[in-house]
Amino acid sequence: MREPGLEIDAISKRYGDVVALREMTFSVRPGELFGFVGSNGAGKTTTMRIALGVLSADSGAVRWAGEPVTHETRRHIGYMPEERGLYPKMKVAEQLTYLARLHGMSAVDARASAARWAERLGVAARRDDEVQKLSLGNQQRVQLAAALVHEPRILVLDEPFSGLDPVAVDVMSQVLSEKAAEGVPVVFSSHQLDLVERLCDRVGIVRSGQMVADGTVAELRAGGAVRLLVDAPEAPDGWADALPGVKVLGREGTVTEVELGEGADDQAVLRAALATGPVREFARKQPSLTELFRSVVTQEVAA
Predict the structure, then answer these.
(1) Partners of 33 in the β-ladder
(2) Cα separation of 209 and 36, whole Å?
(3) d(C-alpha 41, C-alpha 145), whole Å
(4) Cα distance from N-terminal residue to C-terminal residue, the chain
(5) How far apart are CA 17 and CA 270, in angstroms?
(6) pLDDT tens profile 236-268
(7) Which of 8, 68, 93, 199 sits most deeply, having the most CB atoms within 10 A of its CB?
(8) Residue 282, Cβ density class (10 Å: 0-12 exposed, 13-18 middle, ≥19 buried)
């Protein structure tokens, strides 16, 4: 097993009668991209702020490499807040250099790193412009550069892809993958679940301040309900409605999608389809991360 990276161990946080986090627990190993997803208000930002020391937990612990996270450790974390934290009247290069210096870099190294990341993220031509004069997309690029400029050993990013055009999304995706390849643990939240599914090694789904699902997309799929696609061109509408434990999710043309409940038999579905005539396709459907996420949210509403 690899060296432990960033560990969030049973942290809880309450604001009066509102419970923001309930023993939130997960870990991000070195070199791993971890997608942190959940509905608005689920506790993602609170968790990240506690990891950074911006907030204190009521209980639980945050560790790096098996040791409690300290002020010194936090100097090596690259953080990108959802509500952007740049100085609007500072020039891009000046700001990146200043932030690198705050994290302990020498003046020479800070200027070099600021220039390198401005070039890498496509804002080098705007290095002498005030941040407030940039487009929102370019401000987002500068914000990522601010998280990277001090060469962090951990990356914690809150909605880093928000507001970016497709080209900028590709650039940022490549940068995060490169940092992970260097051994940096990367955790980021996003509502763009197709992007999370494509980029991340593991995904954690948060609900009401708790981690309710954690694993690779394949592992999360394995724990979900089985879905079938049945192409039966002569089957009448409603042919599967009465099958025990079977929920019809929809029909498009001659293809019916069904979900099997506990104890339901896929062979019973096949027999019912064959009873209507020929069956051109009978296959399991792999749910997307978006569908898995909706399933978890539906469970929350139904609970």
Answers:
(1) 186
(2) 12
(3) 27
(4) 37
(5) 51
(6) 999 999 999 999 999 999 999 999 988 889 999
(7) 8
(8) middle
Neighbours of 276 (CB within 10 A): 15
Q: Name, in order, each residue with C-beta under 8 angstroms of 166's C-beta and a sequence gap of 6 or more.
A: none
The pLDDT of residue 299 is 62
Tell me the backbone φ, ψ of residue 46, rounded to 5 degrees: -60, -45
d(CA 197, CA 184): 19
Dig out the tokens for 246 from the structure.
């079977």
Domain 225-286 in this protein, CATH class: alpha beta
Second-level CATH architecture of 6-214 = 3-Layer(aba) Sandwich (3.40)
Q: DSSP secondary-structure letter at 130?
A: B
Domain range annotation of the chain = 6-214, 225-286
**Nearest alpha-carbon partner for 31 in 193, 196, 186:** 186
pTM recorded for the entire structure: 0.81
What pLDDT, on the 0 to 100 scale, is given for residue 4? 65
Q: Where are the beta strands (DSSP E) in 39-159?
A: 59-64, 67-68, 77-80, 154-158
The percent of the chain in helix, strand and coil, each rounded to the nearest 5, is 35, 30, 35
Per-residue model confidence (pLDDT) at position 302? 40
Read off the amino acid at residue 300: E
The four Cα atoms 78, 84, 89, 93 give a dihedral, to 10 degrees, of: 30
Q: Are 269 and 302 in contact (CB under 8 A)?
A: no
List pLDDT tens digits, range 76-106: 899 998 877 789 999 999 999 999 999 999 9
Give the pLDDT band of residue 2 (cuts 50, 70, 90): very low
Q: Tell me how far apart the alpha carbons of residues 243 and 261 are, in angstroms, rounded to a whole number.
A: 11
Query: Does the pLDDT of residue 1 top 80, yes or no?
Result: no
28: left (phi over 0), alpha (psi -120 to 50) or beta: beta
Q: What are the phi and psi torsion angles at 163 (to 5°)?
A: 80, 5
Tokens of 269: 């579905």
